[in-house]
Structures are given as structure tokens and as C-alpha cells.
Fold each of these.
Amino acid sequence: MSRIFEVFRQERKGQPLQHAGSVTAPDERFAEIYAREQYGRRQESVALWLVPREAVSEISEFPDEFEMKYRRVDGYSIKARLREAREQAGTLEQAPGAGDDT
Amino acid sequence: MSERSDRLLAIADDELILGWRNSEWTGIAPFLEEDVAFSSIAQNEIGHARALYELAAAELGTTADELAFDRRLDEYRCAPLVELRRLEWARTIARHWLYETADEIRLAALKVSDDPEIAGVAAKMDREEAYHRMHAEMWIDRLLASDDGRIRLNEAVDELWAYALGVLDDELRPELRSRAEARLGRQLAEVEPVPRGVHEAELAELLEEMTIVRRSAPGGARW
């Protein structure tokens, strides 16, 4: 008869809410009180979201049967190539961050 | 001692001793989340006590710590309701709810006090007490929702009722009665309130424990 509520916490206005942990409670009302005390009593949060665990859809399988390493970005420097490509295309001036490039 | 500081000490002592009693559940509350919440509420009460002691201390030319820890047993002004020790959970919740209900009535009167310092502290306290009341009320709903819970709550309230009336001055007691009776949906006994000033035996034991650090380091403990 107890339910699990996942708690998301916002540290400052404008920041994303991040998963803080969970509380176990008989219902939403208890969960709200418990989350407030557990994740807010030290002024460490400006907002909390409570999500019943059963409302969360989980995706946890990401098959990679053929090891398509070329789809990963690690170890692959894109900056110089991107600049080169933009020069050729004549879009260097409109590129995001153009002007502050050193 | 002025009537003002006497009144401040009565409320401060209530908050300090109840905070202490509630903190006795830390580590052994019915489940983890409740443990954290109830302990946090206990810490709030002690914070309220400090604010009130500071007001009284300014008037009496002393400090909050001296008022909290250095008085004689017979100088404490708390209501016996908050002194009772090791109540089981239904009684703890019954006391918590009775106290918070009485405290709300008392704070409402203090918030319109002519004394701006008292009115200010009362308003601040009330903003935090609102969450204590939410906590107490949700437990009362929970207990009233089942036969077993209702029986245990009603037994506990009956035991504590004379003590609860003793938290308030004469003129505020009818308000406590009408709120409690409306909430429980039944009449409560006509009883003689347990007055302030006569202490339960458990208070001596509590003060002994509460002042042990203070007495062992008379110059002031450093953390």
C-alpha cells in the first residue's frame, strides 16, 4: 500500500530539475510532506517535482550489434572540419559563435 | 519578571520541550521518511524556542542559552502536555495534532499583539507551523480512515485532552474544544485542564539529559 515517488529538485530558478532520489509514502499527500522535509528543509531547493514511479516509462535497451563506432563523437574533433566545410559553403559568417572565434 | 517575558518563556519552553520530545523519535520512527520529517519538525520547534528566548533574554538581560538550560526545574513554564515521555506513535500524533491546533489558536492571538516584536515572531513561526499542521492533519485523516486508527486516535486524545486544554489560557480553550470536536466528530469530556507550573516527573529526567553538555562545559561548549 506504499507507493514510490521519484523526486526532482531545482536548486536555483532557471536551472533544470534534476533527479534527487525518491520517497516511499502511502499517498501523494504524505509524499509531498516527506519530499519537502527530505529535499527542502535546508533551503537546498527552490522547487520539487514529484512523479509516481508507475508514471515513469523506462527505456533501457540500446542494441549495438554492429559496433557502429563512427556514430560516437568521442575522440573525433569536429571543430576544424566544420570550419573548413563552412568556408567552402560560404556560411562561415552566419555560423553560431562566429565572431568570437579566436 | 514582566508578564511579557513570562508569556514568552511559557511558549518558548513549550516549543523547546516538545522539540526535544519529538526528537526522541529520531532513528526509531515508524519508517524512514517519517523519521526525517518528524525530526525536521522537531528542529523547527527548537528554532522557534530560540527566537522566543532571544526576545525574553533581551528584556531580562540574559541570553537564550541561559534561559533554555540554566533555570531551575520549577522555573520552567511549559505545559505538562509537552513533557510526557515515550508516547507510542498514536499518542505522539495525537499530542502533535492537539499541540499544533492549540498553537495555531495562540499564534493567531499573538499575531495581532500590540507588541511589534511579538507579532513579528508569531507571524514567522506561523508560516513554518503551517507545514507542521499539514503533517499533523494528514496523519489525523489517515487514522480516522480506519477503525483501528480511529480507536487508537480517540483513546489517545481522551488521555491527553486535559493536558491539551492546559496549553492555552482560559479564554482560548473554547476555541480548541470546538475545533477538536469538529475534527473528531464527537464531544470531548468536560475536564479540569492540567495547568502550567506543575511539572510531570518526566521533566526532571529530561532536563538532566538536556543540560548534560551545558553542565559539563560551564564556560560554553565549542563545536
Note: The mean pLDDT of chain A is 88.
Amino acid sequence: MRLLYYLSKTQAATAKLGVLFSIILLFVVVACQTKGPKIKDVNTGMLLEKVPDSVDFTFHVKPILSDRCFKCHGPDKNALQGSLSLHTAAGAYMALGKAKDRQALVPFKPEASELVVRIHSTDPITQMPPPESNLSLSEYEKEVLEKWIAQGGNYQEHWAFSPPTAEKVPNLNPSWGANEIDAFVYKKLLEKGLDPSEAASKEVLLRRVFLDLTGLPPSPETVKAFVSNTDPNAYDKIVDSLLSTADYAEHMASEWLAISRYADTHGYQDDFERTMWPWRDWVIHAFKENMPYNTFVTYQLAGDLLPNPTKEQILATGFNRNHKITFEGGVIPEEYRVEYVEDRANTFGTAFLGMTMECARCHDHKYDPISQKNHFELFSFFNNLDEKGLVSDRNEVPAPTMRITPEDQKGVLAFLNLQERQKMPDNNGIDKGMEIMVMQDMPIARKTFILNRGAYDQPTTEVFPNTPEKILPFPEHFPKNRLGLSQWLFAEEHPLTARVAVNRIWQRFFGQGLVASSYDFGNQGSLPTHPELLDFMALKFKDGGWDLHKIMRFIVQSDTYKQNSAVSEKALQLDPENKWLARAPRLRLSAESIRDQALAISGLLVRKIGGPSVKPYQPEGLWKETTGGGGGSTANYVPDTGASLYRKSMYTFWKRTVPPPSMLTFDASNRDLCSVKSQQTNTPLQALVLLNDPQIIEASRVLAEKATKKETKVAAQLAYIYLAATGQFTTKKVAEQLLALYHDMEQQVLEEGVLPEAYLGIGEKERSFKEKDTAFTALSLTAHTILNLDLTITRS
Amino acid sequence: MSEKKIIEERSLQLNRRAFLGKTALGIGGIGLASLLGTPYFNTTKNGVITSATPNAGVKGSLGGLHHPAKIKRVIYLFQSGGPSQLELFDYKPMLNKRRGEDLPESIRNGQRLTGMTSGQDKFPLVGSQFNFKQYGNNPAWISDLLPYTAKVADDICVINSMYTEAINHDPAVTFFQTGSQQPGRPSIGSWLSYGLGSENDNLPAFTVLLSRGTGRPNGQPLYTRLWGNGFLHSLHQGVQFRAAKDPVLYLNDPDGMNKATKRNMLDHLAALNDAGYEDYGDPEIKSRIAQYEMAYRMQTSVPDVISTEKEPDYIYKMYGADAKIPGTFAANCLLARRLAEKDVRFIQLYHMGWDQHENLPGAIAKQAKDVDQASAALIMDLKQRGLLEDTLVVWGGEFGRTNYSQGLLTDTNYGRDHHPRSFSMYLAGGGIKPGLYGKTDDFGYNIVENPVHVHDFQATMLHLLGIDHEKFTYKHQGRRFRLTDVEGKIVRDILS
């Protein structure tokens, strides 16, 4: 492996292939060897397997070296202690000390390896890691390192920096498995001694695929029709139809807004309003058109640099301008301009490379082969705008910008919903249209320097656009600008792009990527649970023309996806985190989906696509109590009325310094920075939102009205509401429970524990029932309870 | 064992495992084990889980402390906008003598200026319009603007040698609250909630109270990320207690619904959720049931703690007339004491309006009046209840103000720009040695003795809580983050 460093580029590429096969082989072999009694790691408390007979560098050794040693013996040259680096074989085998008589690592000879001596030492002077690092090694970890050296102390390239390779698909189990996904998953299950779960019921599967693809549940009518449909292709037809909906496009866009840190305000201090929603609407449009991922990304990174760019291509580059911009009087403009460029470069790193580029701003990366020079070379691609660090006038749209006129709606920007925006008449009363932030490079590039400690006022060496060579060297013939950067990103041999993208897609359907750290494919990131499957999917995505529909269809057609999500005792014991996918995961709905679902099932949802962001109910005074003297449209929250109260959550106005509180409570990204994975928490504040937010109470009432119109008998009304909210039919037991709840609520109304007039009066939507109607009030209260069910806010 | 029994047995472990997996937060989740309605896990100082103990409250990830703590809780009276140290604590008579003279370049010594004064061609020195006297046994200079604070001089440690790198509000406040100038990191209260957990099962460990100053009512804004959980679990986000219809967002039952109905509804909800648990065996369902119970308890505990009507008259006299007006700094100080009594870990107040670029004399007098009596009353009140000995009270803003006038200097009027290189704050309570610490030059511009950086302050606060700031880390995206980033020294001189 060491040889690689001395080979020329082309030779290296060929050599890499061979190496790769062995890496993949190792993935397989290693997995088979890690059985046996479980022991607990004293350091992490996590259950561990016993030290494997054959220790693997990638799986067993490097996570330890990276986490405990690289900080002082890793890629950061300036932080190296005792001239020892452990991230390369050459560094580890080097003779050390004045007399050059010691080696940290002597292959096959742990007793002669200084590393082994040091990790066992109890002398604070020689002990490794040293006490002041606050790091330590468990006995298990020490044993792994020792055994690794005894077995030769071999190094391997970081798995994620070698291009994905096509692996032989394991033989399918004849009784289980619909496509290659299942073959790879089944193989792992066998190794782990697990069995796949049975298929989920039709109604559970339907709700799952609806929520996963569109963020909305199926209607009761759709569930009933599907359950009684005997057409073997019924499911596939539904998948196809869902993929073509605007709901799908909006749901996909919703995730992209978090990745792109999209917001309706500038984000610092007075946090003035900005108009970027036409960019957001372009994102929806792109997903609606099933634009190939490479085109989608290229437009956003470099649409303006394409030959004769269309307005659509230029608008797409707004992606790079979604970062925060300061209007705080008195800041030093260059300090903030540097932050904006950093944000663009780091977003690129997180979203497309799955690398923590920001860690190499102040010094070389501590864990990954990304130098500070690499960092600023990447920075330089994004450093060429004629932009201001400080914008003074809150009405100013920070340059560079493009103008969108009403005329444009007749051309390539026909997808824009321009009707409801405020008109901007010029001196002659003609609507000037809108000004939107986009990318535009200056004719003469701004010089980029490595910034000492990352500080804007400490430039050192000049650098030029380039990419980290360890990931993939930047080809000579590519233009040294953002267009070249996107060509590099989608170059045939790029090791990361497809893996990172497909992993994020996988995360949508399984809650967790095949690489759990979807934001970090580096040395400190998680290892893939199913490396061959990840590569298979990456290649399938790439070779299939980066077609999102195709890859998603493939996933939802797998038996792995269609499994039941109930946990068996055995599966719980063997795989509490469901890493091996012996069942489908239960996932709490996103902040957006929880609200959207309530609106949809009640019929309140207004399905209008795009346009200016809207202001639904929000507790009074939230903006006012934190606002400063800046004034403007973000000083005071004025809720909308009518249809705008019932738009999808992705259209809710996002003020970055005071985001919509119920969205944050349910773990929506705060849009400060690029976010590719959100938490899924379970907190008391969430209970308060679902119990007391007028939006939910109003939806309950309107849902009860709908049930009353559809069904006449109480039991049927309850069953309807339950089916609408959970996608499931009531069992006898649940039906009884619901009826008991309903009767108790009726009793509460009679005893004046609930005042119908007040309770039913919540929300703006007009009531179609008499205020004193006890039965209806009880039904509303029951619907309200059902909207709080775990089953309602979870996709099983 | 029946299958159900086995599932229950497993759920304890699974709950934690599933949580760890689902959030990708690693060991971070353990601090909320009891909030999840399950017994918490005992942990060693490295966050190693050693055992599970039922019904024992909310424990933090740290489990054991790094060393014995001096304090159990913090009340942080954040003075937002940058209070002028030269009018409050840092007495510089020379500035009065040399009033109007230009700030010598040798003193400024390259300090970067904000865009608000970098264009001025003169930097006319200006001293305080208000008089100072010395108070206390280890005397500190305190201005006439703070007569009540002067009375507690023997309880507070005034630090005149604070410094920061940030020169503007947003980055400077963010720096104080999160240890980083750019947004994205957890705030101090979130760190503590995560590390130490809560000693109160019915109230959040981290609460936030806001008030608006009268000195500059339309001054600098605040941002909810200042009490955000950053990359920590959202249970650790600061919960705002508001002077509004809903004291905590969404706390009140819907209009027209009484407690009995709500209780009944919750009982049915729990039963239905239990049925879901029977079907799926997913311990998240159990924990959701527990969350609803916690929410229900908050609906009682929050109104209880914020209803101050029963406080005796002498208390209102101590805190001042404003204490009866919800949402004022004085009312918030009184609430802070009540929250401290309930063992809320971190009580964060923000008082806005200290940004006196112009009309400083008039405006700062109002700002000082807003906070002086109640701040002192809080200290006295905690003391008389025996709470001051294990509480840390912090009073201070994000930076100081320049020794020269921003804008025109007249006989009666001047303003001051932001000054990061020296400013004042005070600390009171457990483990703190009262008196005066740190010194600036006669110009009140540069620190000449015992500088205290923002990270030093943070390290010292953690130290008092029994936490070694270098060991208290959270691994996020492969890197171990600290509140104090990579800096911070404990200021041992001010410890008793």
C-alpha cells in the first residue's frame, strides 16, 4: 500500500483498483470473524465483540488510532509530537529518537514496538495517550493495537477515498428478497445470526411509502382501496404515481432546504428579511422534473458559469448565497466576507463530500488528509464574488444579484409563483420584478491566501483553486473555477460524490445511512455497515444517470424496505440499533410532516406550490420581545389569515434568529449552517406543542367535522379518524378504547370540563357545527387525542 | 420469562441504545435517561455507564464530578449591549482631567475599531460624569449609579480586567454564551444541562428570562440561538419563561378545557400508546408516555414557580417597585431566586439596552436604575436563604466601552463605542472571594494586571461547578468540542 505514494498518477489509479478489491474482500472477511461473547468497553460502555482473530486495519485499528492518536500523531504536520505520525505506514515505521534506534511500530514485533510499550506504560511521562490529553485506551483497544502489530501492522487506504467498485451480488435467498439490496442485507443478516422480519401489513407499508416519498399520509379511501386491490403491481403503481406528485417534489425540497441552510432572513443581529424563495421554488421545480442529481448540483454550484447560462441556471446558484449575511453596523467587512466564503466552502464539503472541511481552517485537519492549504484552495473557488462583508441598508439585496421580471414567467422561470409577491414599481409604475442573490465571478479573480489560524487579517501564502489530492487530484484540463469544481465532483473516478448522495437517500428511508455519520466519511466518521451495498448503490445511482426516481423506486421495492417494524426479542438483543436491518425502523415524523399531516388529514391543507413564505399561527410576541432597533418586517410577527395559515410547513417564514418554535421543538435544523441529518428526539416540549398548539386543535376539530360528514355512527367516525391519522384500521381493542375515550369526553363536556364554545372556537377556520353540540365536541376531543398518538407522529 | 417481560427488561437497554443510534449523539443522550421515563444510568467521569438505578432523578452525562463542586447552580444576569465599565466600576479620574484630549496612539496600540468610530479623525478622551466611591473591606470602586450594588460590595468580586476579541454584539454575545463567535455551538446552560442534568424533575434545567432596558429600549436584539442546544440533544435547549399568556410556550391547556378533562385525555392517550407498544415493542413509545407525564407536571410546576403574589411585602421592597411588573428585570430577578430555590441548574437573564453609542449619561443612568436594586436584592435574598453559598451570580455584558467619545463630546453629553480590550463584570456566591480583581491603565484602555479572557471566565465557572473544562467534551462530527474551545485558564485568584 505504501507503494502507492511513489507511483505516478496513472499507475496509482490502476494499482488502486487492485487494492480496492482487497479492501472490499476484507470488509467481507472481517465481518465473518467477529463473533463470540460480548464484552463491554470500559471506556465507552458499549458492548464489544471479543478481539477478532484477524485484526483489520480499517475496521478495528484505524478508528482507535484516529480518535486517540491522530490529534498529535496525524495529518496535522504542525501538531506532530516527537516527529511521529501514525496515519501513514511510512510515518509509523520510521526510525525515531536521536540515535534512530526506535520505531513506533515494528511489523510482527509488538515487543519491539515503542507504541506497544507506551500504551501499556503507567509512567505519566511516557504513557500514551498522555494524561493531559484526557484520552485513554481501553484494554480491548490496547489488545487490538498489539495484535494488529503482531499480525504485521499493515496499513490500508481510507476506504472512502477509493472509488466504489462493483462487487459480486450474493446469491439470493429463494424465499426472501426482491432485489440486490436484499441480497446484500440478507448476507449480513446470516453472518449476524438474524432473520429478516415478515413483510409489513399492506396498510402499514402504504403509509410508510407515502410518508417517505411525499411527507404526507394516504387518505383513508386510498388505504381501503389499496388493501382490497389484488393487482400484484398495485404497490409499484402507487410508487410511480407518488414520485410524479408535487408532494414528492416538495418533500424532497424540504430536506434540501436544511442542507442548503435556506431561510427568509439574513441571520445576524437585526436579522432582516431576504427574498430567496424563488430559489426555493426552483428546487421544488427541479425535483418535480426529476432533474438528474449531477445536473441539479452543477446548476447550483456553477450554473452561472455554464455556456450561455439561462436564467434558471443562474437562479439555481442562489444555493451558495443562502448563508447568513450581517447588517450589524460597525463590523469589519472583511471579517464577515471571509465567513461567507468559509460557509460556502464548508457547505460544499458537508453536502457533497461528506467531509468536515471546516476542521482544516485554522490548521491542517487533525484526522483527515486535508491540509490547511487544501482548505484554502477549496475556499478560493468560492472567493471570487464582488460581494460586501457588511450590508448597510436593510432594503439592499446583497450583490451579486439577478433580476426576475414578470416577463420571465413566460420563459424558463415559468414554474415561479409570482402572483402573491409585493410589486416593485419603478418610477414609471412598471413592475421591476425581484432581485435575488446569485453567484457571479469577478473578471479578475480575487487573490486567495492561506489565513494564519483562519483569521481574516492574517494572510500568508497565496493559493489557487484546487481540490484535496487525497480525495481526487484536480485534473489539469478542468477550468479552475466552480464549473471545474463541479466537473471534478462528478468525475468518473470520484470516490465520494455518489456514495455521499446515495447514503443520504438511504437515510431518508431507514433513518440512518449505511454510513451513519452522513456528514462525515472521514477517519472519524462511521464505517459503512454494508460496504458492498453502499458501493453497489453508489454505482447504480451514478451509472443510472443520477436518476433519483430510479434509485428511490429501487429502495422501496426491496423486501428490506417492506419489512415489518415490530421488534422481535431476538432482534432486540442482537441488534438494538437496527444496524443490520432485520426489521424496518420506526421513525418519528419530521417537524414539517407532523404539522403537514394534521393539516392534510383534516382537509385544511392548502396545496399551493411556491411563492412568498407564509406566517401561520405562532405564540404572540416572540419576535417583538427579542427585536432590536432595526425595525423592518422582521421586528414583529404578524400572522397571516386565511389560506396562508394552512400551507405546508416548508413555506413557513423562517426568521433565523427566532425560528418557528414548534419546528425547532421537533428538531428541524435551525438553518444557521448546512445540516444533512437531524436529530429525532422525544421531549416534554413536544407533548406541549401537540396538546396545545392551536394549529393541532383546529385540525382536530376540522378532522372531526370531516368524519361526521363521512360517517354517521360514532364508532365509524372514530375508525375514520384513527385510520386518517395512523393509517391503520382499528382493532377490536383499539375500537373499544376509542369509544371509551369518546364517552369520557362526552361526560367531560356534560360536566363542563370542556366549554364547547371556547374549545371549538380555537383556530380561524369557520365552524360548521353548533357550538353546544356535545357529541361533536367529544369527537373533536377524541380526534385531538388521536393526533397526539405515538402511532400518528411515527411511521412504522 | 414471558415475552413481554423480556421486552420490558430489554427496553431499558434499548431505550438508551436506540436513542444513541437515532440521534448519532453518542453518549450524550444518557443525561436525559430519567426524562425518558426510564431509570437513569450511573456513569463514571468519562461518561462510562456503570449501572442503572431506578427513580433517582435526572442525571447528567458526567455522572461524577471531576472535583468537589462549590456551587450547584448559576444565575447569569447578562447585561446585553456592553455596559460602560467607565461609568460603573472602573474608576479613571485621569480621563476627567484629560477630557477632550486625543487618545494617544501609544495607548490604542493598533486596537481594531468598529466601523462606527474607525472613521473619526479624533478620539477625545472622556471621563465618567458620575462619581465613584470605594466600598467594602477589600475595596472596589463603585459608581453612584449603583447605590444598591455598593451595599453588597462585600459579597461581590468585581473584575475590571475582562477582555474579549469580538468587537460587535452578535459575535461578542455569542462568544460569551457559547465559547465561539460564530453560531452553532451549545450555550453554557445547555452544556450544564447535558453534563450535570437537573435536580428538579418537573422543571427544565436551563431557563431563560428576558427584559428590555429603559436606557435604550430599541437597542440590540437577542437571538434564540443564544440559549440553543447547538449539537446537543434538544432536551438541553434553554426554555424561555415569558411574561405572557403562556409562561412557557404552549404550556396552557386549550381554551375551555379544565385540568380534569386534560388528565382524563392523557390517561386515555397513555392507554392507547400502550396498545401501540404491545404491537411494536418500541421503547420510544414508553418514553413518549413519560414525556407526556413530564409535560403535565410542568403545567403545574411552572405556574407555581412563577406566581409571586404570595411573596411578602418586604421582598417586593428589596427588589423594588418593578418587581411587581412581569417581564421587568426586577421581576425576573425575583423569579430567578424562586427558580434557584427549585434547584434549576442554570438561570439565564438577559437585560437589553446597554449599547450607549450616544447620549450615554442619560441612558446609562436609566439602565443602571433598571438593574441596580434588583441585582443587589437577589444577592441579599439568596444570602438570607442560605442559597448564595452554593449559587454563582454573574453580572456582566459582552464587552466594554471606549474611553473616548463616539460622536460629538459636549459639556454634558457623549457616547462610547465598543471596547473589547478591557471591561468589568462581577461575580458573587459560592467559592468566590469578594473584592476587586484586575487593573487597567490610567486611561482605562489596556489591562495592566490579571487579564481575564472570556474562556477563563467560562473555565472558572465550570470549575466552581466541579467540572474540569478540559475534560468536559462532546464529540460531534469527529471532534471533541469544549465550551472553552482550546483555551481557558481557571482564575484561581478570585476563588475563596
Note: Residues 1-64 of chain B form one domain.
